[in-house]
Design a protein that fits this description.
The complex is a heterodimer of chains A (499) and B (325). With 499 residues, chain A is an all-alpha fold. In chain A, 72% of the residues lie in helices and 1% in strands. With 325 residues, chain B is an alpha/beta fold. Chain B folds into two domains: 191 residues, Bordetella uptake gene, domain 1 (D-Maltodextrin-Binding Protein, domain 2); 126 residues, D-Maltodextrin-Binding Protein, domain 2, CATH 3.40.190. The chains are: A mainly alpha (499), B alpha/beta (325). Chain A: This is Putative tricarboxylic transport membrane protein.
């Protein structure tokens, strides 16, 4: 079948009102769910799944993909407006989005988040369509040793998001690494730091830690000292992103999109690390480097490009190999199976109409995302006008509800509140929360892959240097560490000169 | 423990004891706990049967995924729930025969549950990457003797972990724990990926998890553990290979309640399941995923699981695989 035939076959499958409506509804559901703190994109997809069982396969999958994409973007709305990432992937957006909102430029930040998300989404979808086969076979070169070096390199992000003091950032990261060890040991299956409590056996729930660390400290801070916040509202500010601003950030957006595509096509990493990596790369390269973390539009653009760049690319291992790349695609692969579809190389031959139908749907979804996103920004902007005395109790209720709903487990709510106090103490002492989060996500990946590599080689460390991919990441890591040390020395020198 | 009880109570949305007699059961919706994540094999199986089952029950079934610790978190929630039949669990081979056999520190035992049915049997299959030079179980065993063979699993103490060791043991490999390296992964998807990208040599897992990879020509099946051949798997059965002991190695999904649910409740579930499993749509969609629908009565289900547990436990003790501490 020629390409044209395939496209026509796909079009005949999705070229109807039902398919586009499912996609549209999916993006809308996802955006709203993502915008509610505690309702992550993963949860939204999981909740939608049972409803798709009775639908036609293509419509079911388009609906779920819409929810996924909408959810990843929607998460940035509360991240910017109330410092609470709606979904883990938008944690990096908080770093510059919230300071922008504080300055009364929430509208600009939201607008940039939307532009960056849609651009990255489009790039990611094109990468899927054009390079799926190639990227998938590349991703299969990633065994534990390659993963280990990639994660090791990613840990250097910590330096990029530590803010003024690298020492404080490192402290925060160490705390994150420590808490990430709670749960069952990967290789021996023994309990680690569970204190005999079955609820701790699964480790600390990621969403609970995330919400606890970002949202609860703000609420506590307000309760602690309510006066300065009394009746305070912020203006949404200038609603539009100018073309000049978009152009200025374009490089970071494209870079972020490619980081997203790259990390998305490798099974097992997910959107949050990609957003952080894109953010720290943008910061390193940007002429406005010093403004990052204080409300830099480019920071928002880079993080949103990083997380939406993953969305299309995670379908690469799913469609080309039949392997789910992250939690969300693991749910979507369930939908494929329910409908008797077997994702993998044969699907490109047996179900070529579905594959091309999906491609068409994905491209259209970027457009839908843009329109629904614009409407959502307009709708949610009133959140900025609500006095904090009313807003924060509402946020607290949503957080408790959302964290409970992740796992139907009250223990997670307890984790959220404990982490809230930890986050509050960190906030008071100017210890940044982002390194904690990165370490909490990457720590287990680093450990697991290291130990798997050691099992593979019979404990010989030379396996960590096998092949060009490991050498590449070792090289990057060394270069980055040298750059961080040099920047540190330079900073101390300037301080001394001033003194 | 306090939290666990709390969670059990609140998660199940159980009202106060209404002292309803068994004749009225069920007079309100029943909470069904799925101890694994959305989109996984257990979740799909549970949600597929929920449709015909809900009709048979005449009340709505509230499905909730309570995940974590290889199914332990959700299982504990049901163990601690009120045993009035309004909180039931979708139990699985991993959570209720492999885990209890392997983990000394598991916060529950088989005695904490009463099974009302096992409705789905899923054969196990062993497979290698398609381009591997291993073409049969004999090749694999010969390779093990040479050394350097490894197998992946979805985690320590999972069904896949036990299956790998059990198969090697049955085929006469001495000291299978050291002859082949076990490389645990996080989850079944990652376990398959590990074989695809060459991290591990082979794996033994549910045929439904392998079906798409076999159909796509990415993996080569070496054996299925059932008596009858499995559709789509061009591989000998355990019976063909003269290893009938491996017939015990099958996955299953069942429904259980806390240990002291009444006979009336168990009996009603027996009737409902018999009605639900007759649903044609349910049967055809489950069979399309490689499962065998075989509804067991409460008594048969308990006996089946006990037997499997005993087999697994004996193997675990023989090989010294039990996880302490």
């Amino acid at each position: 079948m020629s390409l044209m035939d395939s496209i026509l076959a796909g079009l005949s499958l999705v070229g109807n009102f039902e398919a586009f409506f499912a996609l549209f509804a999916g993006v809308a559901i996802g955006t709203i769910a993502g915008a509610i703190p505690g309702m992550s994109a993963t949860m939204a997809v999981a909740l939608t799944l049972p409803f798709t069982f009775s639908m036609q396969p293509i419509i079911a999958i388009l609906l779920l993909l819409g929810v996924y994409k909408g959810g990843i973007f929607g998460g940035s709305i509360p991240a910017i407006l109330i410092k609470t990432p709606g979904t883990p992937a938008s944690s990096a957006t908080v770093l510059d989005g919230y300071p922008l909102a504080e300055k009364g430029q929430a509208g600009k930040a939201l607008g940039m988040a939307l532009w960056a998300s849609c651009t990255a989404d489009l790039i990611s979808n094109l990468a899927l369509i054009l390079f799926a086969g190639w990227l998938a076979s590349f991703a299969l070169n990633f065994g534990p040793p390659e993963f280990f070096t990639l994660i090791l390199f990613s840990l250097t992000i910590i330096a990029g998001v530590s803010g003024a003091s690298l020492l404080r950032g490192a402290l925060s990261a160490m705390l994150g690494l420590l808490l990430a060890t709670v749960g069952l040991d990967l290789v021996y299956g023994t309990n680690r730091f569970t204190f005999g409590d079955p609820s701790m056996m699964g480790g600390l729930n990621f969403i609970a830690v995330l919400i606890g660390l970002f949202a609860i400290p703000e609420v506590l801070a307000m309760v602690w000292d309510p006066k300065p916040h009394k009746g305070q509202t912020r203006s949404l500010g200038d609603n539009k992103v100018t073309f000049g601003e978009y152009k200025r950030c374009f490089k970071s957006i494209v870079r972020g999109s490619f980081i997203g595509v790259f990390l998305g096509s490798i099974p097992g990493i997910g959107a949050a690390p990609s957003a952080f990596l894109s953010y720290s790369e943008a910061r390193r390269k940007s002429p406005n480097r010093d403004n990052f973390g204080k409300g830099e539009l480019e920071g928002v653009a880079a993080s949103e490009a990083g997380n939406n760049g993953v969305a299309g690319a995670t379908l690469i291992p799913l469609l080309a190999l039949g392997v789910p790349g992250d939690v969300i695609t693991a749910i979507i692969i369930g939908a494929f199976m329910v409908h008797g579809l077997q994702p993998g190389p044969m699907m490109f031959i047996l179900n070529v109409d579905i594959i091309y139908g999906l491609f068409i749907g994905l491209i259209v979804s970027s457009v839908f995302l843009f329109f629904i996103g614009s409407v959502a920004i307009r709708g949610f902007k009133y959140v900025a006008d609500i006095p904090r005395g009313v807003l924060f109790p509402g946020v607290l209720v949503l957080c408790v509800y959302g964290v409970f709903a992740v796992n139907n487990n009250i223990f997670d709510v307890g984790v959220m509140f404990v982490m809230g106090w930890v986050g509050f103490v960190m906030l008071r002492n100017d210890i940044p929360a982002a390194p904690f989060l990165i370490a909490f996500i990457l720590g287990p990946l680093l450990e697991d892959n290291f130990r798997q590599a050691m099992l593979m080689s019979g404990s010989s460390p030379t396996i960590l240097f096998r092949g060009p991919i490991t050498w590449f990441f070792w090289g990057l890591t060394v270069l980055t560490v040298i750059a961080i040390i040099r920047a540190g020395i330079r900073a101390t020198r300037t301080l001394k000169r001033r003194a | 423990m306090k939290f666990a009880k709390f969670s059990a109570v609140s998660a199940m949305v159980i009202g106060l004891a209404t002292a309803a007699s068994a004749a009225d059961y069920p007079e309100r919706p029943i909470n069904m706990v799925i101890p694994y994540g959305a989109g996984g094999a257990t979740d799909i199986s549970a949600r597929t049967i929920a449709e015909p089952l809900g009709k048979a029950v005449g009340q709505s079934l509230i499905m909730a995924n309570v995940t974590g610790a290889g199914g332990a978190t959700g299982s504990v929630a049901v163990k601690n729930a009120k045993s009035d039949g309004y909180t039931m669990l979708f139990a699985r081979v991993g959570s209720h025969s492999v885990n209890p056999a392997m983990k000394a520190t598991l916060p529950y035992t088989l005695d904490d549950f009463r099974f009302v049915t096992v409705y789905e049997i899923n054969p196990f299959a062993c497979a290698v990457e398609a381009n591997s030079d291993i073409n049969s179980m004999d090749d694999l065993i010969a390779k093990v003797a040479e050394g350097g063979v490894s197998y992946s699993s979805s985690g320590v103490g999972s069904g896949l972990h036990l299956a790998g060791a059990m198969v090697l043991d049955e085929f006469g490999v001495e000291d299978p724990l050291n002859a082949a390296t076990h490389i645990p992964q996080k989850g079944g998807g990652a376990a398959v990926t590990a074989v695809l990208n060459g991290t591990a040599t082979f794996l033994c897992t549910n045929s439904s998890a392998l079906a798409s990879f076999v159909a796509n020509g990415q993996m080569k099946p070496l054996m299925v553990t059932t008596k009858e051949p499995v559709v789509g798997f061009d591989a000998p059965t355990a019976a063909d290979l003269g290893k009938p002991a491996l017939h015990q190695l099958v996955g299953w999904t069942g429904i259980a309640g806390p240990a002291d649910i009444s006979d009336e409740v168990a009996g009603k579930w027996g009737e409902w399941m018999a009605a639900a499993a007759g649903d044609e749509e349910f049967v055809s969609s489950m069979e399309a995923r490689g499962s065998i629908i075989d509804v067991m009565s409460p008594e048969d289900a308990n006996a089946f699981i006990q037997e499997q547990y005993t087999t697994f436990r004996a193997l675990v003790d023989k090989l010294g695989m039990r996880i302490e501490g």
